[in-house]
Amino acid sequence: MYDENGRPYLDFFAGAGALNYGHNHPELKRALLAYLERDGVTHGLDMHTTAKRDLLAALREYVLAPRGLDYKVQFPGPTGTNAVEAALKLARKVTGRESIISFTHGFHGMTLGSLSVTGNAMKRGGAGIPLVHATPMPFDNYLDGQVPDFLWFERLLADSGSGLNAPAAVIVETVQGEGGINVARPEWLRSLAELCKRHDILLIVDDVQMGCGRTGPFFSFEVAGIEPDIVCLSKSIGGYGLPLALVLLRPELDVWSPGEHNGTFRGNNPAFVTAARALELFWTDDLLPAQTATKGEVVESALTAIASKHAELDIAVRGRGLAWGLAFADADVAAKVVTGAFDRGLLIETAGADGEVAKLMPALTIGHDELGEGLEILTDAVADAAH
């Protein structure tokens, strides 16, 4: 990216995961311009259009069918929080229950329902009203392995005197992005899915930030071999950075009445066009996931070297695929690193409850030279912050 004076910046932020394929990818741009030039429908409410049809066909052919997944597709509105709100609303309608289980340090959006299942106190405080009908449980390794996985959760479910209302659903991120790049183990995710089945609880995976290849496979939950009841997608599903969100749901969960969950901008046709083209470009084979894994190893190696060199800063390295973080014991150091990186021409952000994690999410299509350059800048920024 370039500022108005022509100064270049490497973007390791990528629209918080909305630009997995980079800025202004030329193939996606050509598809968009061609659609606009031929006077394709731009605004169609949530009605059926050829652009929507083509996206649904591409999603089925390149993503769902190869993975043996049978989901219906709902267009809930143009943003990630719209997808989460629709998923929570649907889970409550299907089950007739109100309570939702979320996890410590989870982040699911900035509207009221999404905030109710978000952990961050500052963001929750912005609601201005009590956030109810949601109960947090410890995310993987939250208790440092001192308590067996789900012991507390399952005991509450089994005890009629626990005060926990029977949940409609559990909502989880397999890698918590805004929460600080907290990575759930595959075995933890499998145990969660099994618990949900035993207790007739719907499992919602929020793949808004970590989907579309960010962790390697198209869906971040593929590593665990689970099939959620509902999946929330947004950010990079649009391919080009245009607003788009999808909810994938098991067919038997489609109990919506016509018009029961509608919205003016559910049908972002230009985003349908770029989304379909992105699926055709990047998801017809395993090349992108393989490249993401290789680049992820490069990032992990560089971050591990940084942490080792600056042991006095007590840095933890976290991540999977091309979502990584340097977790500092002192949040002020993380802030200095991010500022120092920006001054050197690298865009990154902080994450975590106190902003203690320097978070890296470069485009999946980044070149190896650019990746190496960005990691060198980060290395210098950490060294400077350590003094």
TrEMBL record:
Top enzyme class: transferase
UniProt-listed GO biological process terms: ectoine biosynthetic process
Classification via Pfam families: Aminotran_3
InterPro entries linked to this entry: Aminotrans_3, Aminotrans_3_PPA_site, Dat, Ectoine_EctB, PyrdxlP-dep_Trfase, PyrdxlP-dep_Trfase_major, PyrdxlP-dep_Trfase_small
PROSITE patterns hit by this protein: AA_TRANSFER_CLASS_3 (PS00600)
Cofactor: pyridoxal 5'-phosphate
Biological pathway: Amine and polyamine biosynthesis; ectoine biosynthesis; L-ectoine from L-aspartate 4-semialdehyde: step 1/3
Keywords, comma-separated and alphabetical: Aminotransferase, Pyridoxal phosphate, Transferase
EC numbers on record: 2.6.1.76
Highest taxon above the source species: Bacteria
GO molecular function ontology, one term from the record: pyridoxal phosphate binding
Record family assignment: Belongs to the class-III pyridoxal-phosphate-dependent aminotransferase family.
NCBIfam families noted in UniProt: dat, ectoine_ectB, PRK09264.1
Name of the featured protein: Diaminobutyrate--2-oxoglutarate transaminase
The organism of origin for this protein: Actinocatenispora sera
